[in-house]
Specification:
Number of strands: 11
Radius of gyration: 25 Å
Number of helices: 15
Strand content: 5-15%
Helix content: 40-55%
Largest sheet: 6 strands, parallel
Structural class: alpha/beta
Oligomer: single chain
Strand order of the largest sheet: 2-1-3-4-5-10
Shape: elongated
């Protein structure tokens, strides 16, 4: 029996501009307003069957809790703030990260607010704003630095937060990170096994923690095989398409061209390919590239590239679960996750099996 047939005197589909209330849900469910409120807030003294029924009715009638009322009653905003730098790259992490968060947060009473900031601005400003105005119950941060003032500020303030990336400041905090040391080691070994000996790295900006991790893995693996880095200067994965392409073209036209590149992102790999081709060279024949990606786009862009997946959608799912745990009072040590690199695959093979 449908909800509408159970209660024919309530026209759910054509309720006009009236905003559904707890009283409406109580009437539809035959429960008290107190029980409905508890069910919607996942109270432990309400059965799962009752919670499911109440939540189904709330969804059916389009009920949305009044945030101001919730804040008055509980002191909570039911808001999570995702603080992200504005990214130029079309293949940045923002979209899949938000998608992953949305996968989980939609089944909770929380709402996501994305708080952007320009990379040329002080990244502490939006963090202070959220904390000092009480705009959210928890914060998710990205682009962590080894000694990150945002992490110290939030830790000292006792404000629930998680980071996409680690720090090196002796503060225990919740994080989800990708093992970029292992990624770089695996990439260099793979290139060497393919006979490449003149290998360069397009790294993250050296201010970020994961740049240290990637550099560590890259240089340690070269040292293990008694090889020297082929320097790529004055660019990082944050550089523009034109800057990366121009530098790679310059090197490929020189008397000491690269024959292997480890790319810190998909954007930098695409830019590097443009520089390689502008110099009259081709991938596979003259040079091999290894890149990280989350979109399965490189497999459609060029064959004969080699990729390792970094799943930003999974990262988003982990991060939202972690910050909700921190809001409930979990210890930071309970929410620390290091994602291991997956298998390294040829994009030509990936394209055929996609």
């Amino acid at each position: 029996m449908t909800l509408n047939k159970q209660l024919p005197d309530i026209d759910i589909a054509n309720a006009g501009n009236k905003r559904p209330t707890l009283k409406d849900i109580a009437y539809l469910s035959g429960l008290s307003v107190t029980t409905v409120s508890k069910a919607l807030n996942d109270a432990t003294d309400i059965s799962s069957k009752t919670k499911s029924r109440v939540q189904l009715i709330a969804k059916k009638v389009g009920y949305r809790p009044n945030r101001a009322g919730i804040r008055l009653r509980t002191g909570k905003t039911n808001v999570i703030s995702l603080i992200l730098s504005t990214e130029v790259g079309a293949m940045g992490m923002t979209s899949p990260l938000v998608t992953g968060i949305s996968d989980i947060i939609g089944d909770t009473n929380y709402h996501l607010v994305v708080t952007p900031y320009d990379m040329n601005q002080d990244p502490l400003v939006p963090v202070k704003y959220v904390v000092e105005t009480g705009a959210a119950d928890g914060i998710i941060l990205s682009r962590t630095e080894p000694h990150d003032p945002r992490v110290k500020y939030l830790h000292d303030a006792g404000f629930p937060f998680v980071t996409h990336g680690r720090t090196r400041m002796g503060i225990e905090h919740a994080f989800h990170d990708f093992d970029n040391t292992a990624y770089a080691k695996k990439s260099v070994k793979f290139l060497i096994d393919r006979g490449r000996k003149h290998i360069g790295l397009i790294p993250p900006p050296d201010t970020l923690t994961f740049a240290q991790h990637m550099n560590s893995g890259f240089f340690s693996e070269l040292d293990r095989h008694d090889l020297q880095e082929m320097p790529i200067r004055n660019i990082s994965i944050d550089s523009t398409f034109e800057e990366i392409a121009a530098e790679i073209e310059r090197i490929m036209r020189s008397s000491h061209p690269l024959d292997g590149i480890v790319c810190g992102s998909a954007n930098s790999a695409i830019s590097a390919i443009a520089g390689i081709e502008a110099a009259g060279k081709t991938t596979a024949a003259d040079i091999d590239l290894v890149a990280k990606e989350s979109f399965e786009f490189l497999s459609r862009f060029r064959p004969n590239l080699f990729v390792i997946q970094e799943n930003f959608r999974d990262a988003g799912q982990h991060l939202i679960k972690m910050v909700l745990g921190m809001i409930e009072g979990d210890r930071a040590e309970k929410h620390q996750f290091l994602e291991a690199p997956g298998p390294l695959g040829n994009t030509e093979t990936c394209a055929k099996t996609a």
